[in-house]
Design a protein that fits this description.
This protein is an alpha/beta fold and about 425 residues long. It has helices at about 1-10, 25-30, 50-65, 90-105, 115-125, 175-185, 200-210, 250-265, 275-280, 300-305, 315-325, 345-350, 370-380, 390-395, 410-420; strands at about 40-45, 70, 85, 90, 130-135, 155, 190-195, 215-220, 225-230, 230-235, 240-245, 290-295, 305-310, 335, 355-360, 385, 405-410. Helix 13 (about 370-380) links the parallel strand 15 (about 355-360) and strand 16. It is globular, with a radius of gyration of 21 Å. The model has no long low-confidence stretch (mean pLDDT about 95). The protein has two domains: about 1-280, Mur-like, catalytic domain (UDP-N-acetylmuramoyl-L-alanine:D-glutamate ligase, 3-Layer(aba) Sandwich), CATH 3.40.1190; about 290-420, Protein-Tyrosine Phosphatase, Chain A, CATH 3.90.190. Helix 4 (about 90-105) crosses helix 5 (about 115-125). Strands 4-3-2-5-1-6-7-8 form an eight-stranded mixed beta sheet, with helices on both faces. It has 15 helices and 17 strands.
Length: about 425
């Protein structure tokens, strides 16, 4: 209750949820003694795959006995998920104490909630100067609150695509502008660029970072992977090749994220990551709401022996790679969909092929989501589409046959509700 009250106060310090600027975070961190200058960080920017790449790195680093601090957003079930120190989520009491320190230092100055959270993370992280910090950027990067580091060990650029276009000027709502916002201010250290959806995007990234003096590591030029038989895949880079077991996360797009994580950690030679750390680590990745199979709980009980998945993808690029996984399955696929209002709904759903049924729902407790009935009307050219008011009602309404699967997707906020209700 104490934590909730503090969070409520902090959310009222700025009239906007997002206000892209570095002034407020820099001023607050200066009052705190510039804690961001006292940490060792790997920065992760991009559109899709940031969380999964971080979790893959984290799992490998734990096998190598590293202590890590992690900053991610948004959270799925509780705000504590955003704050990992010494390999553990911060508990309610410690997080409330941390927020109180930030609140006192800020002294009621206007500041966004994300900026408060970022300052809180930097302050706590500075207490562990020997730990490795894995820091996910927010909306874009150039004016993101996480972009006040003076140096880092590496910047990881995950897959970039169209998302959050409503935060860009109307005449610049394109992938080129997104690439500029995410990569033009990367620090001079190491830059690892993941597999991109098109060659043009990779070329545009190269152009944007041309004058950056970093050591640059590109997928398919400096590292790559190939699928092998018998549940193995082969990873290769300038340091050699490794035959690896398939990780405990589903979909080829996750192999891309895992490979990017491996490339980053092997590029940082001083970490001395061994093959055995990688082999063990990729079998223990935490993939919450990323093509996550729900194997027990209240919602799982409703589908009985059928498989139930939840995935937080919410943009066209996420839909594309998710459908590629679904297409690899020889079964009927039933999708339950809820989305935020500012997404490209028709573009998102256009990637799903050969879907047995589509059930639209409202996202509970999210005023910025599109109403289920409105979303259904927007997608009226989709065959076999239905609307239900709740997650439970949607699951119950689906007629499933042997081997059919049900996938709930369209929003990380919806994924959080699914996991909470389950």
């Amino acid at each position: 209750m104490k934590l909730q009250k503090i969070v409520s106060r902090l959310q009222k310090l700025h009239p906007k949820e997002i206000d892209l600027s570095l002034d407020r975070i820099q001023n607050l961190c200066k009052k705190l003694g510039n804690p961001q200058d006292k940490i060792k960080a790997i920065s992760i920017v991009g559109t899709n795959g940031k969380y999964s790449t971080i979790q893959a790195m984290f799992s490998i680093l734990k096998e190598a006995n590293f202590k890590c601090n992690i900053y991610t957003s948004p959270h799925i079930k509780s705000i504590n998920e955003r704050f990992v120190f010494n390999n553990e989520e911060l508990n309610d009491e410690d997080l409330a104490t941390l927020f109180e320190k930030i609140e006192e230092a800020n002294n009621n100055e206007p500041i966004t909630f994300f900026e408060i959270l970022t300052a809180a993370y930097f302050l706590k992280a500075s207490k562990y100067p020997d730990n490795l910090n894995l820091i996910e950027s927010g909306l874009f990067f150039r004016f993101d609150a996480t972009n006040i580091l003076k140096n880092n060990l590496a910047s990881v650029v995950t897959s970039i695509g169209l998302d959050h276009l409503d935060w860009l000027p109307e005449n610049e709502q394109n992938v080129e502008k997104i690439i500029f916002e995410k990569t033009s201010s990367l620090l001079n250290s190491n830059i690892v660029i993941a597999k991109q959806s098109t060659r043009d995007i990779t070329d545009n990234i190269k152009k944007t970072i041309l004058n950056n003096s970093s050591n640059k590591v590109f997928y398919n030029e400096n590292y790559s992977f190939t699928l092998q038989e018998n549940d193995f895949f082969y990873y290769e880079d300038q340091f050699g090749g490794i035959k690896l077991p398939m990780p405990n996360v589903k979909g080829q797009f996750q192999l891309e994220n895992v490979s990017t994580a491996i490339a980053t950690l092997r590029t940082l030679k001083d970490l001395n990551i061994k093959d055995i750390h990688i082999k063990k680590g990729i079998l223990k990745i935490n993939g919450i709401a990323r093509l996550q199979e729900i194997k027990s709980g209240k919602l799982k009980a409703l589908v009985k022996d059928h498989k139930l998945f939840v995935d937080g993808s919410h943009n066209p690029l996420g839909a594309k790679v998710l459908n590629e996984y679904l297409e690899s399955l020889d079964c009927n696929k039933h999708i339950i969909l809820g989305m935020m209002a500012n997404k490209d709904h028709n573009e998102y759903i256009s990637f799903f092929k050969n879907v047995a049924s589509l059930t639209i729902i409202d996202i509970p407790n999210q005023p910025n989501s599109i109403k289920g009935k409105d979303l259904k009307n927007k997608l009226n050219n989709f065959s076999n589409i239905n609307y239900k008011e709740s997650i439970e009602a949607a699951i119950k309404s689906i007629t499933v046959k042997e081997n059919d699967i049900i996938l709930i997707t369209g929003s990380l906020y919806l994924a959080g509700e699914v996991l909470s209700q389950n």
